[in-house]
Amino acid sequence: MKVSGRNVVLVVLGLLVAAAATAWWTYNYEYVETEVTLRPRGEASYNPLYALKLALQADGVQATSRQRLQLDDVPPGAQDTVLVLNDPRTLSVEDVNDLLDWVEDGGHLLVRTPPLERGEATRAGELFEALQLRPVASFGCMRIAQPQGGRDRSDKGKHDHDRDDDGEPAEHAVAFCGGTRFRMLGVEPLQSWGDLDNGYAYARLAHGEGTVDVVADFNFLTNASLERPASSTLARQLLQPGWKRGTVHLVYAANMPSLWRLLLETAWMAWLPALLALAAWLWLRTQRFGPRLPSPEPARRALLEHVQASGEHLWRYGRASALYAAVREVFMARLRRRDPLAAALDGRAQAEAIALRTGVTIADVEHALQTPRPNDGADFRHRIARLLQLRQQL
Predict the structure, then answer these.
(1) Do residues 227 and 93 both lie within one domain?
(2) Nearest residue to 250 (alpha-carbon basis) of 114, 126, 111
(3) Do 235 and 315 belong to one domain?
(4) Which of 177, 255, 324, 350 yields a CA-CA distance of 20 to 30 A from 380?
(5) Do residues 92 and 198 share a domain?
(6) Is residue 222 one of the residues assigned to a domain?
(7) Structural domain span for residue 110
(8) Within a domain: 161
(9) Beta-bridge partners for 60
(10) Is residue 363 predicted with pLDDT exceeding 60?
């Protein structure tokens, strides 16, 4: 097979262009790894304490989570810990009494303060009334720092030297920014975090043989915040009384959106085309308003006009007897239906029976039943009118 020099040149040029493009691509671009945060799925999408449960289980702590307290179905043990994430005011009086009785036997309870209410003072609820705590409308963030010698850190101290793992100022290591603080009425806490002027953001209270931890909010325990080192450290300190001595019960409020909101947010690719198809179908079925159509032309000749014209035609050609015979037959047909005996008679006897039934004289009946004289219009009309009158009186 003979190969021409021109083809060889084209192949060489193509290889050179491909090599140049590859070298340019390799020089200007490099492979990098990119992390893409996916939306949570499964239990992580509706359980805000899912990450805390996994972290506790990975650390060797028995932890369970559920939506409701359910003390009758899942009673906690004497060494267990119960964390109630939702508003404590939603607890019934029976649940509050059972929780406090359980704490007196050695349990550890963690609750948050109720959120502020607009237009009125924040209600304390049954649990806070029993613990002698009062929510106050005070805001402000508390800085979370690594513990030093077990000493509590207050927001009144100086923490400008706090640093994170990278040596930068720990500006993100704050908590209780949006929570409701509280005051203690005649209660001496084991530990506290805050002051009398601005209220307390945290307090550990002794109740019988157990303890109750009251926190301004639990945002640092949720899935998105627990990965911060300061949040995990604070969570570890809160769970210290019952650490690895029992089961940690994480009770969260199911914050599932309504069905209509789910359809609006996630199913729009299905309902939007269906809505457009419905609108198009309604548009096709809707009556359109255009120019006024002309009225249809009325019939050129009514039925009575047709009958009149036919009668005039027969009269003009000397067929009046046919018209009379038709009217007389109509009269006799009704007579046979109304008085069969009179219809069976003949002559004067029939005329007498018809006269007796209708109240007309016998002479008028005989005159109406006789064929009119030819070419006598008045006599023809008189006999026809009399027959129609007798027919109505039958």
Answers:
(1) yes
(2) 111
(3) no
(4) 350
(5) yes
(6) yes
(7) 42-148+171-251
(8) no
(9) none
(10) yes
Which amino acid does the sequence have at 322?
A: A
Q: Can you name the residues that pair with 251 across neighbouring β-strands?
A: 66, 84
- Comparing CA positions, the residue from 347, 330, 387 lying closest to residue 364 is 387
Number of compact structural domains in the chain: 2
By the 8 A CB rule, do 215 and 199 touch? Answer: no
User: Of 251, 284, 313, which closes a domain?
Assistant: 251
Half-sphere exposure of 195 (CA within 13 A, CB side): 11
**Residue indicated by tokens 């009425």:** 185
Please return the burial class of 248, using the count of CB atoms within 10 Å of its CB with bins 0-12, 13-18 and 19+: buried
Q: Are residues 115 and 241 both part of a single domain? A: yes
Cα angle, residue 55 at apex, residues 81 and 46 outer, rounded to 5°: 85
pLDDT value, residue 139: 61
**Which of 19-28, 87-96, 125-134, 246-255 has the weakest average pLDDT?**
246-255
pLDDT beyond 60 at 190: yes
Question: pLDDT by residue (tens digit) across 82-95?
Answer: 999 888 888 888 98
Tell me the pLDDT tens digit for each residue of 237-271.
899 998 988 999 999 875 556 678 777 877 888 88
Q: Is residue 292 part of a domain?
A: no
* Separation between Cα atoms, residue 323 and residue 380, nearest integer Å: 10
Q: For residue 209, what pLDDT band results from cuts at 50, 70 and 90?
A: very high
- Residues near 256 by beta carbon (within 8 Å), at least 6 away in sequence: 46
What's the length of the chain? 394
For the residues of 143-206, what is the DSSP string, one character each?
A: E----BTTB---TTS--TT-B-TTSSB-TT-EE-SSS-EEEESS---SEEEEETTTEEEEEEEE
Six-digit token string for 121: 């003072």
What is the pLDDT at residue 351? 87
- Together in a domain, 176 and 238: yes
Residues 109 and 207 in one domain: yes
Please give the pLDDT value at position 169.
44
Q: What is the CATH classification number for the domain harbouring 132? A: 3.40.50.880
- Structure tokens belonging to residue 345: 């008679």
Instruction: Look up the pTM and report it.
Output: 0.53
Specify whether the CB–CB gap between 12 and 20 falls below 8 A. no
Which of 230, 251, 272 is the last residue before a domain boundary? Answer: 251
Judgement on whether residues 110 and 220 belong to the same structural domain of the protein: yes
Separation of CA 128 from chain center: 37
